[in-house]
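Researcher: I'd like a structural prediction for the single chain below. Treat it as a standalone chain; there are no partners to consider.
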Amino acid sequence: MENKWIIWSEKFEVGYKRIDDQHRELINIINDLHASAEKGNLLIPEVKDKFKIILKRTVDYATYHFATEEKIMKAVHYKSFKEHISKHREFSSKVLEEVIKYTNGENVDMEDFIVYLRDWLFSHILGDDKAFVDELKLILEKMKEEENQKK
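Model: Treating it as a single chain, here is the predicted structure.
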């Protein structure tokens, strides 16, 4: 069995399957980044190229995930929508900045960067995303009750 740097735990579940599945995938990608950085010297072109591919996957998947959350938030008029997407944008800017530096050959401490990704994701899931899904469940329950009253 492969050793994972981050092990998915029920404590990370927000209780909305689509979002939980996407969080699991983000953790898998961060694990891949960590494994790639640990296994090889990032100065070797082949290792660096593989690492860049995983970095791109990180950016692409985070963008997809944030778009999913934001679409749901908008649809249900989530009260903290602006604050939540502001955190997504801040994170995306930081990640993009580091990826551009790395891609341009600037010195980036990838270990620190990967730890930042993990810590930010944990904090965001356990705080912002749990609060969002808790409110989402209340909104959906209220909508369901209103539908039942119409019948």
